[in-house]
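Handoff note, outgoing to incoming analyst
You'll be picking up this chain. Sequence as last confirmed:
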Amino acid sequence: MNARAARTAAATGTSRLLSRPMLLLLVASVGGMGGFYLLLSVLPLYAATAGGGGVGAGLTTGAMMLATVLAEPAVPWFLARFGHRAVVGAGLLLLGLPSAVLSLWSSFPLTLGVCLARGVGLGIVVVAGTALAAELAPPGRRSESLGLYGVSLGVPSVLGLPAGVWLSDRLGFEPVFLLTAALTLLALPAVAGLPARRATRATQDERLSGDPDGRKGDPGRRNGELGGRSEDPGVRKGTPDGPLGAAVNRSLVRPTLILGAATFASGVLVTFLPLALLGGPSHLAVVALLVQASVAPLARWGAGWWGDRRGSSSLLLPAVLAVALGTAGLVRLESPVMVIVSMVLFGAGFGAVQNVTLATMFERVPRSGFGRVSVVWNLAFDAGMGLGAVGFGLLIDRTGYPWGFAVTAVLLLAVLVPAWHDRRYVQAETT
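Most recent structure output, in case you need it:
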């Protein structure tokens, strides 16, 4: 059986994606990310209208992403020490409860403090969830499982991003802060059904079968895009433990760079698009965020389905190009049609980039390295968002919004070079 046939047979087998632990993970993720996305575009508006301007708006997202990046490397240790239930529960609380404080007191330093606490909660939820989604995947269906998990992260953005902006405009900021706290608290009961420790069903089966890297029962791993080379040579020779062990794996550098560039643009959009469209057609910002947020999770799931059957690497170049073109289209902010078309392109490309880079990185390490890959991937994601928000906030004071979006698009076009080289790397490994 060739590599493609093996992937297809494994992906269409009888193993269920939605096991009980996976379903509860999705519920917890929806609640946590709902609390995240509800305020993602609201807090920059809150800071800007309170006198912070563009720089203050960028700092709210930047502070949250900084805290996320600093917290993420410690998450695997906390998971090993305390287990998924306690750690994910703490992450949900940090994502939601601090926002309630803003309904009582209002100051820019306090807003930044809330953003820092929410950033720690975000780092906990996404690192723990990404690693657990990979561990719970049935044999040969890891990309699809990651795509399904991506939907649980993306669906809250479909409602949360536009709803937060709409509700804050209609009701004010304080009700949105309280709603965020309530939403994350409602997700806490699902945490009780998560695995107590990182020893999930998959890893238990591997210990019993004497297969610590999970290759025996996973045709996709044996016959995947790397032609049976499920690890980078650096991994086989032994890389350092911890997040650095994944970071120094040379085959992960290009996917990490590509993801960081895409999330740089995402940080720009979610922070500044509502501000850039102020004074334009009524509700255009809400509709644009809704379109982008709706397309992205569908593209992420579709990319996972395609990756298990045809290989993920074939989607990398078109996904990066779609992100760049979607950003470039925002130069025409005066055209509602162009704004919406740009959001469709951006959402499709961004969703695909997320799944392709994550699946590719998991394919290039043994199962024992999943936690480290989750950290590195999420570090790239969140660092990109934070840098995009802060950098764009400094840039637009000099260029204005249209030129700022043009510069961001040029940076994304430059990422086509590592995307092309990564595809050639995969092709070389399979020949």
